[in-house]
Design goal:
- The protein is of the alpha+beta class.
- The protein folds into two domains: about 80 residues, OB fold (Dihydrolipoamide Acetyltransferase, E2P) (Beta Barrel); about 170 residues, Up-down Bundle (de novo design (two linked rop proteins)).
- The chain is about 30% helix and about 25% strand.
- The chain contains seven helices and nine strands; from the N terminus they run βββββααααβββαβαα.
- The strands form two sheets. The protein has a five-stranded mixed barrel with strand order 1-2-3-5-4. Strands 6-8-7-9 form a four-stranded mixed beta sheet.
- α2 packs parallel to α4 and α4 runs parallel beside α7.
- The longest helix has 17 residues.
Length: about 250
């Protein structure tokens, strides 16, 4: 006998399953990442139409039976459509890049309720009209994601001498998730990008602010280095998860 449960969920991705049905990838508040089948979702008069689109937050009722490989979505109600994200190409690319990472790096059915709430709050901030440049949202997510997976960055002190940087540029190391100051770099040249004092301070600020402060993030010091900085954060994730991370959504920025 199947059990029903209700949960808030983000629609990560959908694919056609049959002539009339979809497989829907959900990141749920109560059970983590799930794949469910929405029977009849492609029919013209389906109650699912308009709700099972990527970037939507929904309230879903799911029928679960242990013997089934795919669980069944029985009903869904739209909570947030994030229309300001959809109307802005860089914001859309940012949100979809975040969803790509969730899809690739979270194990199926892993309950991560605090992270779900963080993710929705981040999307609501990205949806806010005052967010003009979305890079800070993406970097905040990448820092936070690394932290909850157990290999967060340490950017306060040099990993070699242990001191606070006094000479610049400092260099980021994606393997250790740390930095090397300019003096230590003379003896062991690093491969990562260099940051001047202002850029280093900006990156430090980005690791710690509450989400509601992200619209005040001073991104100007990193202007022109957005792609290089994003790449080093992704390399850090890829190294520690053994998953090659090439986010298709980020190509929209070019």
């Amino acid at each position: 006998m199947a059990d029903l449960f209700k949960t808030r969920a983000l629609v990560i991705h959908t694919v056609r399953w049959s002539e009339s049905s979809k497989i829907v990838h959900l990141f749920t508040e109560s059970k983590g990442y799930m794949k469910v089948v929405a029977k009849g979702a492609l029919r013209p008069r389906s109650p699912f139409r308009g709700t099972l689109e990527s970037l939507n937050e929904v309230e879903a009722i799911i029928s679960v039976k242990e013997s089934r490989e795919l669980q069944v979505l029985t009903s869904v109600a739209l909570l947030h459509a994030f229309m300001n994200i959809r109307a802005d190409l860089p914001k859309t690319a940012t949100a979809l890049a975040i969803f790509e990472l969730v899809q690739q790096l979270f194990r199926t059915h892993e309950p991560v309720k605090p992270f779900y709430r963080y993710l929705v709050a981040l999307l609501l901030k990205l949806d806010a009209a005052q967010i003009r440049e979305p890079w800070g949202i993406l970097w905040h997510f990448l820092f936070h994601f690394s932290q909850i997976l157990g290999f967060g960055w340490q950017l306060t002190t040099c990993r070699i001498c242990g001191g606070s940087p006094q000479a610049f540029p400092v260099f980021l190391d994606h393997i250790s998730g740390s930095l090397c100051c300019a003096r230590c770099a003379l003896h062991k040249p690093p491969k990562g990008p260099g940051l001047n004092r202002e850029q280093w301070q900006t990156v430090q600020q980005l690791q710690t602010p509450a989400i509601d402060k992200l619209d005040q993030f001073p991104g100007a010091p990193l202007q022109g280095q957005e792609e290089a900085f994003t790449e080093i954060l992704l390399k850090h994730l890829a190294y520690h998860t053994d998953i090659s991370l090439e986010l298709k959504s980020l190509k929209w920025f070019h």
